[in-house]
Write a structure and sequence with these properties.
This protein is of the alpha/beta class. It has 4 helices and 5 strands; from the N terminus they run E-H-E-H-E-E-H-E-H.
Length: 154
């Protein structure tokens, strides 16, 4: 089973790119069903990422990044390079997808995917807004096509 999760905030321009790609993939799957593929829009809920990934063999996470690099650059990173245990907190909003990977492995053990890939798309604008910038839209189209190729192999 392959689980694909888009993360981000649709109200913050390029930060919504992961969610937008996930929604496009969900639409794609309605026309091209793949019985071993699930796609979720988890927004900013790291806890939901952890629970939706449970039971999968493989996990793909898509999100925006803000490293100061050229907008639209796509980083494909193994999940184990990004996973971190959460800092003690009283707010679930502080529990991010990188925490979900580490915590999911610890809590669900063999029932959590070992094969995790993260697509990070460098944002140009994280301010309020609903539109992706052109560079991030182009990157979103590229990542969408790459993931469709991965899905076809499942």
């Amino acid at each position: 089973m392959l689980t694909i999760i888009g993360c981000g905030n649709l109200n913050r321009s390029d930060d919504g790119v992961g969610v937008i790609i996930a929604q496009r993939l969900q639409q794609y799957l309605t026309q091209n069903p793949h019985p071993h593929v699930s796609v979720y829009d988890c927004g900013t809920s790291g806890m939901e990422v952890m629970f939706q990934a449970r039971g999968s063999r493989r996990l793909i996470i898509i999100d925006a990044s803000s490293t100061g690099s050229e907008p639209g650059i796509v980083y494909t990173v193994p999940g184990e390079e990004l996973e971190t245990l959460p800092e003690p907190s009283y707010s679930l909003h502080d529990f991010r997808w990188d925490n979900a990977i580490a915590s999911g492995r610890k809590i669900f053990q063999q029932n959590f995917p070992r094969d995790v890939t993260v697509y990070l798309i460098e944002a140009a604008n994280l301010g309020f807004g609903w539109e992706l910038t052109p560079a991030v839209q182009n990157a979103a189209n590229f990542v969408f096509a790459e993931i469709v190729k991965v899905m076809s192999k499942e």
